[in-house]
Amino acid sequence: MVSEVSVAPAERLTLTTADGTAIAATRYAAGEDSPAPRGVIVVGGASAVPQRYYRRFAEAAVARGYTTFTLDYRGIGDSAPENLRGYRMDFRDWARQDLSAAIDRAAREGLPVFSVGHSYGGSAFGLMARPERVRALYSFGSGTGWAGWMPRAERLRVYAMWNLVGPVATRVWGYLPWSRFMSGEDVPTDAYRDWKRWCSYPRFVLDDPETPEARESFAAVRIPIVSVAATDDRWAPPASRDALLSGYTGAPVEAVDVTPAELGVEQIGHMGYFRPFAAALWEAVFDRFDALLEAEPA
After folding, report:
1. Taking the model in full, what pTM does it have?
2. Which domain holds residue 243?
3. pLDDT digit string (tens) for 43-54?
């Protein structure tokens, strides 16, 4: 399981999506013991990763004057029902419903809204309703999940999860018990099946014939995007990140590679972007958002 972070509590919220689903979220407010708020950040997390994993990043953002929201997608963490068996959803809902509801709530702060994505949170940003509400996207480890971009050992591990473990486990449990096999929360069967299908294509949802609207939706995004990939991220290496960015044909995009040596660690991997040793990466996020705010007309 993803380890919890022991810090002072923040404001817990329940958001209601456009389709009436209740989503658990947390608001970390700037302006009390931190600089006056200058913007708002919504963190779009990775698949099966609970919002508590992003607490340290949220507190760092508050220290820089950014009120920050995190959320648990439907079926995950505090947004999951008591039993996932039979729980129905669409993998796209995490972006077009849940993340969009968090953006709506963030906009009520009356300040410019930014998004920080991790894995799915950046990979599916192009599916989000009205992305123009967001001033900029900064993502980490957001790629296509296609095994062809991965090192051979990871390719075999992913193949076993999607094609051997997943089908059996979902039949037995009625959901994917991700917490038993990987690091994270259990996943609804519908999300597992869509996730598996999208990851079977070199460009993720962009190549999926069941989501023909995806290419147009991604191409409609016009906001600046920075996408960071660790060179040792086996799930979303730079080539995978670049394949995803190819879908944002209407947006100014910047691809950034980072090595473990740059952060003084032996490994970053797919989950290291939001661990304490990656604080320098977070400061780069805030610096970029600051620069965008300062460039806006008074």
Report:
1. 0.94
2. 11-295
3. 999 999 999 999
